[in-house]
From TrEMBL:
One of its GO terms (cellular component) is cytosolic small ribosomal subunit. It comes from Devosia litorisediminis. GO terms for biological process: translation. CDD domains: Ribosomal_uS17 (cd00364). The gene is rpsQ. It holds the Pfam family Ribosomal_S17. Belongs to the universal ribosomal protein uS17 family. NCBIfam families: PRK05610.1, uS17_bact. This is Small ribosomal subunit protein uS17. Keywords: Ribonucleoprotein, Ribosomal protein, RNA-binding, rRNA-binding. PANTHER family: 40S RIBOSOMAL PROTEIN S11 FAMILY MEMBER, SMALL RIBOSOMAL SUBUNIT PROTEIN US17M. One of the primary rRNA binding proteins, it binds specifically to the 5'-end of 16S ribosomal RNA. Part of the 30S ribosomal subunit. GO terms for molecular function: rRNA binding; structural constituent of ribosome.
Length: 82
């Protein structure tokens, strides 16, 4: 089974080898028929401490690395926005 890959924005890089990525999903509300935005934060492993706050990155599912880390950083897709 292929690993899931999600795209999101780095919201924290304070920890060593860890980044917090906010992934946003959009869906249509079943009753109101209005587009709703929901987001969730994932902790991802960043071995080289490359990602910075504001960057758009991709994370991939992996085996558990620690209590909260089940994702690893794949690549960054954009430069940080000023």
């Amino acid at each position: 089974m292929p690993k899931r890959v999600l795209q999101g924005t780095v919201v924290s890089d304070a920890n060593d080898k860890t980044v917090v990525v906010r992934v946003e999903r959009r869906f249509t509300h079943p009753v109101m028929k209005k587009t709703v935005r929901r987001s969730k934060k994932y902790q991802a492993h960043d071995e080289a401490n490359l990602a910075k706050i504001g960057q758009i990155v991709q994370i991939e599912e992996c085996a558990p690395i620690s209590k909260n880390k089940r994702w690893t950083l794949v690549t960054d897709t954009a430069a940080p926005s000023a």
